[in-house]
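Please predict the structure of the following assembly.
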Amino acid sequence: MHGRIRTWGPGALVLLPTVLLLGYFVYGLIAWSFNTSLTNRHTARKGPADYVGFENYGHLFSEDRFLNSLKNLGVLTVAFIVGTLVFGLLWALLLEKGVPGESIFRSIYLFPMAISMIASGVVWGWLLNPSTGDDARGLNRLFEILHLHFLENPWWTAGSRWTTMASIALPAVWQMSGYIMALFLAGFRGIPPELREAARVDGASEFKLYRHVLFPQLSPIALSALIILGHISLKLFDLIYAITGPNQFRTEVPAILMWNTLLRSDQAKAAAIGIVMLAVVAVLVIPYLAWTVRQETEE
Amino acid sequence: MRGGLSKTLALVGAAGLLAVSACGNSNDNSGGGGSSASKDVTVFTWWADGGEKAGLDGLVSVFGTECKDYKFVNSAVAGGAGSNAKQVLANDLQAGKPPSTFQAHAGAELKDYINAGQVDDVTQLYKDYGLDKAFPQNLIDNLTVDGKIYSIPANIHRANVVWANPTVLKKANIDATKAPANVDAWIADLTKLKAAGVAAPLAVSKGFAQEMLVEAVLLGELGADKFKGLWDGKTDWSGGDVTAALNKYKTLLTFTNTDREAIDWPDALGYVNSGKAGYTLMGDWVAAQQLADKVPDTAYTYWPAPGTGQDFQFLADSFTLPTNGADPDGAKCWLKVVGSAEGQKAFNTKKGSIPARSDADPADYPKYQQSAMADWKKDTIVPSCAHGAACTLGQNNDILSALSQFSGSPDVAKLQSALGTAMKTS
């Protein structure tokens, strides 16, 4: 008995603060939010509130504004993840092939990540000015000067959901592609050179080398990238807020709607939106966790 | 290439600095809620720069001489129409750490705080400071909720003002000296301007500016009584006259700039000043902006929105006495200064608004304010929703969302039902 405490005791002691803090600030507060979402606490007034079950959720899913924000989020997530993966992989491939001054390019690609979303949102809000023709400003001005008139467009003020949310995804792609590039580049560098040599000796073409030898080894990295990007996309608030401001129906995502709801002190509804967002993240994260656990047990 | 890189780095660096300064700001502000045990009076506002900050400084100097026992502690949070500030304030109130006094729009917007039990009744202070005599009765009526008053206004602003560029209007032979008789006449003038080569004769910006425009159209078309009824439930939002007015709003939008969702009101005003547009509709804080931008009096003109010549659509910034606030005596001294003739003069001459007191001397004020003060005395007073006098934060939030949807895909029936639904929530 005494001996067993010696084995696991110190480890548990080291972990204890983390477990307590996580337990309170993450899981405790999730439970608290969930509890609030089941009540009719629709004002800032203190005191007891009644439980109304899942009524708030029922209202949410029958509300145009919330459904619209979910659709916006879906489109944003797809555009953001596809865009970032494509650019990140492309840059990683180019750097992996070897270029002079690689470290300079690496820094340039990674630099946007150092800027806070709110700051880049302010700048991109200006770059994405919807005026065209003689009045064009921002990116449209650039296209105007380059005589690429067909590229000028109203960006996020366009009518269609895809154009709107893809325009919002653009700055996010710009900001996160460098990070994905770094992930993939590290992946490429982690592959032993012997594997490439062996493939080349066996007469594999460049394309086949990537297709059958290198890419399969990157799949764990691609999956991590997907998870990281997915949850960033769900949390995206500051960027959208900076570009379009609050109360913008076209670009509203659940995070912004939650902020708006909290501003009017409708705590139960805001908590319900938060819990829905958590559920959406869980849809992404839980399969990933299951997959990693299975991988680890297989090893 | 080298130049390009260093430019990029400089840009990136600048953006980084922006981010750092933004962080610094929020840190400064987060300390604002907790007031210390000394005789500090923390005053929470969203007046952080420009004419608003100058006005606040004016109040502070009066406070410094009138309330020597107390020290003013600025707890301002920057951001358009106070949306950031309101979020910070909501947190502080929720945490039980109210500032000594906070800024809130007078009228319906205060209901949120009253319903939550976060502000105290100040009716007695009106008697103590003689404000019940100094403020016009119709203003006091607008401030009273169930027989009680919960705030003391520092100023009055007018929302329904159209600002015009006479040089542009001259091109289409339009008389700039007087307002078109109604919205239809305005649309006719806009058509003339468009024919004369002005692509977007009506400059509009995002969010509340569109709300102010739709309110001005509703006020002009329905008249003051029915318009007031929209906000207190006596007028039916689904009525045919509302449909007709919203259709006119839809027509007005076709004369506006395409980047209306991306710009703020100073940019829209800039379009008028630079001659790219003929008109913009905005509250009378434009007068202070024109003064600050050194635009000469002759370069612009202004009149009440078409069809609203007899109506003064008002909004007022006011200060409250939070429940369980730190040092209520200090807060009361601040409120006394806010309501006093001297305090209102110090504040309003700098902010470009007019005093709520009816005993102020117009000679102390610049040209625009003199005309507004005369109108305030004789016009019908109606509230504005865009600035919290007619509706709560929640209602306003839903209306803004509906209008941004309308701006993208104008569907009058959808907008009308969305507006009606918005007013049914709280």
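The longest helix of chain A spans residues 2-37. Chain A touches chain B at residues 42-46, 65, 104, 108, 111-112, 114-116, 118-120, 122-123, 125, 128-132, 135, 137, 154, 156-157, 159, 244-250, 252, 259-260, 262-266 (CB under 8 Å).
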